[in-house]
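User: My collaborator sent over this chain with a note saying "see what the structure looks like." That's all I know about it. Can you take a look?
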Amino acid sequence: MKVAIASGKGGTGKTFVSTNLFYTFRNMGISVSLVDCDAEVPNLLAFFSAIEREKNDVTQYLPVIDVSKCIFCSKCAEYCAYNAIFVVPDLKMIQLLEEMCHGCGACEVACPNNAIKESLKKVGTVRVYEIDGEKRFVEGRMETGISSPVPVIKQAIKSAEKLNTDFLIMDAPPGTSCPFIQTVAKADFVILVTEPTPFGLSDLRQAADSLKTMDIPFGVIVNRAEIGDRAVYEYLEKNNIHLFAEIPFDKDIARLYSEGKIVVGTLPEIKSIFENIVNQLMNYGNSNNKW
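Assistant: Without extra context I'll predict from the sequence alone. Here is the result:
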């Protein structure tokens, strides 16, 4: 079962949930792996003692234009859905805008004079790590200056799926843009982490609407539960959205997390909350009575 941990905004506690949920699964003897899909700023590795076992470059198609063959007909620019090719026929000028290119290859197909050829550009790296003697953690990390982490996320998830564990936890990028969509699209279930504030509710609505459109089942964890009002809970009840748990606003949680420690290994009350979340996920996977 693939479970994505996501949020409509950064800072709600998504990574806190991912790392502690992974640790709880392992502590309960359940086969689980973890993939860091936040390829722009991956940080899950800070919470584990892990040994790198595999490293694979992620490449993307990049067109190379042979100006000596180009007849400046602009067909390539017309076919490019991302406006990544700039052509001025009168000046016999053509330019590829690399940061806008999505590597689809349409320009090469469109060119009537074989002036465009394929090349490969490194866009990131996927690493597989060993934790306690088992390959259980995958990290995707994009190269500096690359505009989209999507190719890296795709490859990271593929590498994580090869680990063949009963559960795969996918720590999704924040927000609701393409990286978020690419991650949750591979999930059997999504847990949205929010906070009971006006900003938390606003971003939760956006993420929930996206998942409803994609027809992906999801539930919610409310983090820092005591800091705001009841508007988030009213929204969940009104829309019949499953509430997995409330995590209290506690300075001990903040202190341990800031030190790069797994909180469920220290605070029994938080351990109990996460064990309950695991049990709910287990029951969901084994039941026809979905939320």
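A starting point for your reply to your collaborator: Residues 22 and 166 are 12 Å apart (CA to CA).
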